[in-house]
Amino acid sequence: MNIEDKGENVLTRNSRPGTRNAKRTNMASNMKTPLTLLIVALLLVPVEAAQKQKKGRPRTVTRKPAAVGAPAVKAPASPLAGTAVVIVTKNSDRIVGTIIDLNPYSIRIRSEGLESAIALDTISSLTFGSLGGRDTNREPPPAAASAEFARDMTSAVIAFQSMIASAKPGADYTDYGRQLSELRPQAERFIARYGPSENAREARVVGLLAGALTDYSWARTVWTLKLGRQSDGTVAEGDSSIISDLLVLYPDLRSSATTGNRFAADRLIAGLWQKASEKIDRVRAVR
Questions:
Q1: Which pLDDT score, from 0 to 100, does residue 176 have?
Q2: How far lies 24's CA from each of 29, 30, 38, 53, in Å?
Q3: Which of 190, 194, 232, 258 could form a disulfide with 156 if both were Cys (CB 3.0 to 4.6 A apart)?
């Protein structure tokens, strides 16, 4: 072997270790890549499972039950709501307004833009009317009165008819008082029974009959005051609160009965009888 061949062999042997090292490095690198991927995959599996479990879990919404309170009960409106009324109190106060509500204990009205409630036991008289500007097309016609009411109303009207027969010029004071005493309990029973009625027709009849009874009672009082003054048959406004009340309620009687600064008792009595008779006629017209 020559020197050149030896040198070549030496170089060949010296180069083999480097080749082996490169192969080892490549193998290690190739083994690290799948191992790294496996580790990453193992770490991702629990995360993905947790996300799937979270997505698949149904959402529970807790709702608190709504607070249940007692339902508001609205009281039925009075059938006379919207009707004009003139009230004369026992203190001689005169109030003109529109009815908002009427019950067996009090009346609530609107007068001069203000609302007020007045106890019935403080009222001397009530006179019902109708509002000229009331829109009748806005409300259905009032329901017909019941058969029982019609029967009782007929009996009451007959009793008032007997009173009308007694309330004429030349009537006897004692006979008039007896007739009024017979009328009063029957009329008051009718008024007490049907006063709380929610039927508009029935309530109107009750108001008219109550007003007629008041007129006849006032006439009796004026007559009594007249007998107390044998001189001229007149009464003064200050003689009784009833004189003041009727003059406020019926201004036409003030003008027709005025005699100086007093009032002719006979004219006041006749005027009250006429007012009562007109109310009975209006009751007969109710169907």
A1: 92
A2: 9, 10, 22, 44
A3: 190
